[in-house]
Amino acid sequence: MSSKSKRSEELNIKEEPNLTVDILEDNENTEVDETSRGGQEGECDPILISSKNIPECKNEPEEPCCSNVSYINVPVVISQFKICLQLENSVRFCEPVVCIKASKKTLQLKECKLIPGTKKVFIRGVIKKVLEYASARCQSSKGTSGNIRYLTYLVPFECTTEISYINPPEIKANKEQKFIPLEYHFVCEDKGYFNQNIICEIVRYKINELMCREDVVPVENIKGQDCFYKMREKIVLNLHLRLMQNQVVCMNKGAN
């Protein structure tokens, strides 16, 4: 064997392992990189869970109230009424009060519910009052001094009343399930209706009150000035309410 062939064999033996190792290392690195990239991207990739075709169903026209007329869905007045409530409460101050300067009142209706199947309405709310009063602090030869303060509190009221209908509400009772036994199976019948809510709104209100001083006593270091720590209120509340419900109303097509 010549020296050239020996040299080439030696070179081939030495180069093949190096080339094989280099190729394997490149493949492994490539697979690891692709796997790591695929894991990161796979977390945000969208996945289609399911897909299906929805068939079309046939419908039959249905007149909501009557035929050959136009119809609209509008709020209808069920009842409008006025109630009168008489309230009495007492207020205690934490300092001697000389006089009440002003009294501001607002009405908040918390509940107004018509009981289905009856004409009874349950009403509940509060009167929010803000009193501005003058308190006595001290007295000198030149006169009496004090502070102008504010007091905010709530006067609750509650009652129930029986009303008369202008237009009766549309309330349909939902029937319970009925199982009809047959020879080898049961037939279930169930019906349901969606009833529109009855809305209650305040038309107007009027509050008349009388405030009476109690526990009137002279204050120390203040001569000739009687103050009070307690006050009793008598309130007459006139409340006008309206009940409404969305209903389908039929109209003549030729009517304006």
Automatic annotation (TrEMBL):
<feature type="region of interest" description="Disordered">
    <location>
        <begin position="1"/>
        <end position="46"/>
    </location>
</feature>
<dbReference type="Pfam" id="PF25250">
    <property type="entry name" value="DUF7852"/>
</dbReference>
<feature type="domain" description="DUF7852">
    <location>
        <begin position="49"/>
        <end position="117"/>
    </location>
</feature>
<feature type="compositionally biased region" description="Basic and acidic residues">
    <location>
        <begin position="1"/>
        <end position="17"/>
    </location>
</feature>
<dbReference type="InterPro" id="IPR057174">
    <property type="entry name" value="DUF7852"/>
</dbReference>
<feature type="compositionally biased region" description="Acidic residues">
    <location>
        <begin position="23"/>
        <end position="33"/>
    </location>
</feature>
<protein>
    <recommendedName>
        <fullName>DUF7852 domain-containing protein</fullName>
    </recommendedName>
</protein>
